[in-house]
What we know:
This protein is mostly helical and about 160 residues long. It has a single domain (about 5-155), classed as Up-down Bundle (Four Helix Bundle (Hemerythrin (Met), subunit A)), CATH 1.20.120. Helices cover about 65% and strands about 0% of the residues. The protein has eight helices and no strands. The protein has helices spanning about 5-15, 25-30, 35-40, 50-70, 85-95, 95-115, 120, 130-155. α1 runs antiparallel to α6 (about 95-115). The longest helix is centred in the C-terminal third of the chain and has 26 residues, at about 130-155.
Amino acid sequence: xxxxxISLIDRQRAVITAEDFxxxxxxxxxxxxxxxxxxxxxxxxxxxxxxxxxSHVVAWRRDCMHKIVGDRPHPLKVDSLEDWTPNELLRQxxxxxxxxxxxxxxxxxxxxxxxxxDAFLEGRPDGEERSFQFILDGLxxxxxxxxxxxxxxxxxxxx
Length: 159
């Protein structure tokens, strides 16, 4: 049976694209209409830009995917350059590239999970105390948390 895995995949996809996402707007409804200028604009000093938030979410997804495949030569460190890439560096990559990396990382995560069964969720990544179930649930919660921040930044851009 794969009920838990399928539920995780459905939750991940809902955060990204669902038209009827329970918490309101999905990432797609927030990001697709956003201009490149707005994506990199910091409306309030000290607030992350939408681009920085997206890059951060992608970094944690990638780290999680490395855990899943057992390939983590350099685990992501909180507040590292990879965790929070500066806006100036992200701007060099461009908004369309960042958005595509964001969507592609969600697709890649879901594809990795499709190859696993519910028993996989009880296992633990090398060097971790927590199960894959805990980590993956947390990753979806992390996406939702930052979706709220994206919405806040966009609301400040519209003021």
